[in-house]
Write a structure and sequence with these properties.
About 0% of the residues are buried. The chain has about 70 residues and is mostly helical. About 60% of the residues lie in helices and about 10% in strands. It has a two-stranded antiparallel ribbon.
Length: about 70
């Protein structure tokens, strides 16, 4: 997600709080929020995929994938 899109999300949030949004702006805000959440989930998944556990015996194991709802 680009900095411009994040700035637009913030801009729409502040406009919503101050004067309200048109239907088109509400749709844009919802789409941007969905994109932001998807990007955050993907970033978190990538981070977790790089995590390794060091056991007391010195062996290293990867995290096991869990079913996410």
């Amino acid at each position: 997600m680009t900095e411009e899109k994040i700035a637009r999300i913030n801009e729409l949030y502040h406009k919503m709080k101050n004067q309200g949004l048109s239907e088109q702006e509400k749709e844009e805000q919802a789409a941007l929020r969905r994109e932001y959440i998807a990007a955050m989930k993907a970033d978190l998944a990538n981070t977790l995929n790089r995590v390794r556990i060091v056991n007391p015996d010195g062996s290293i194991e990867e995290l096991k994938k869990k079913h996410v709802q």
